[in-house]
């Protein structure tokens, strides 16, 4: 009965309209009556692009090398060859039922592995890489681009095989093709082959936008952008098949941004990586609109996009471009147009800031890479620099003091959380990530990693009785979403920046945390109780030579340039440094030390970390 009640509350939190949309979508596919199952399109024939204009001065070299080797998720390099589009790129295993219509193919198959590996090459990073090389005058790159596109179309006839299963995947291909047109300087040209390619994809996307809306995530924004970009491209070329793709895309994109992006800029997916995907999507829509001379988006749309850019700027470490590994992270990067794009968020923030605020986020031409390759003039002016931000629209506090950043996650869930990371603290001093989030590893990871990475154990917070903060109801769904109780307070008093927040979970356990950041010090006060057996406070530490000392209720920890103390009083039952795992890149995880402080009774722990100033 308790689990039934949890499911009922969670379905209500997801929204009855969204639940109904998903149910109707699935019922339609099962019955064979869904409109998307009646869509037809011819196999496009090349050439798709016929010429390349020289790149703008200052464009950096291509970000990923698809000439000498195949690149997966931005970091996995395998021997170069023309991809087998419906097979696992490493093992060569063909996805089950790969010759069947996409709705007859399983979403997950343990024997075949992670479907994202099959999708990765069909996300067409290589389209941008070849277009960049062609714009830089490299011989043969336009022919290679056309040949690969033709091969993809032959091996993925509409709408057969795993690469047609997801409307967002189809949308990414449209956005990559349009991005290549911008890189090549030909957005006002549309060959018959490219037109057929766009129409083939838009016909897959349009009938399932209700399902995309029901997800309340980047499926809706990506599919809306593809419809807008592809539809306006067809309209500009006078293609009679343009229909209402562009109008639907514009309307849906404005509606999705109004719903999914909060006033302080938080995106519905509570993820730094997917926040970048949002920014890159909006930047394409705006750059494309300008290139084709389309009507401007609404002022409300531009305002939310600018807020989303400010949110990202407040979370990004400006010296390295890296950011806290918070939320789901599959390495998604819509514009891999520069070297090191996987962990450098600055060019995306720079582009969004320029397009929606008309200013610069960072000095230095390197950070203009996305703008230059999309042929948008960089903004002028002096950057203001990142500041603290309390994003109450989604439960993020970015505390900044000098070179230090403390990101605090607190429970303000308007949308479903993907990780049990409430009251997690990420600490950065310059590019040094001292207290860390675990990341994602894989959406189809085997046990025990499928539960480890999204779970409470993988975050810098308190875990009660060995369970997650919220019960798991599915692969990507937690139930009984937590809410702030009592006073939730953000303050910047000149002597540092602070946040106070807390919660009670569904089993009666409670945790209240006060975080105070100064230029050379982080202080965290944790009060907790209501558990049955034990509470474990974890601090996931940067890899270093840590020395641990325990005396009575006092713990001391030291590493080069850093000293930490933890006062636990009589509640302390034990402490140790154990090996944990972190995943900064998709499908990869590495060891790191984790300080575990076990408490046997309700109490208070005062943690203080002090670092040497540079």
TrEMBL record:
Query: What one GO molecular function would you report for this record?
Result: lyase activity
User: To which species is this protein native?
Assistant: Ramlibacter albus
One family from Pfam that matches here is Hepar_II_III_C
- What's in the keyword line of the UniProt record? Lyase, Periplasm, Signal
Domain Heparinase II/III-like C-terminal, residue spans: 386-555
Q: Does the keyword Transmembrane apply?
A: no
- By its UniProt entry, which SUPFAM superfamilies does this protein fall under? Chondroitin AC/alginate lyase
The record's section on InterPro entries has: Chondroitin_lyas, Hepar_II_III_C
Predominant cellular place of this UniProt entry's protein: periplasm
Q: Which domain of life is it from?
A: Bacteria
Q: What does the entry list under GO cellular component?
A: periplasmic space
Q: Keyword rRNA processing on this protein?
A: no
UniProt name for this protein: Heparinase II/III-family protein
Compartments, as annotated in UniProt:
Periplasm
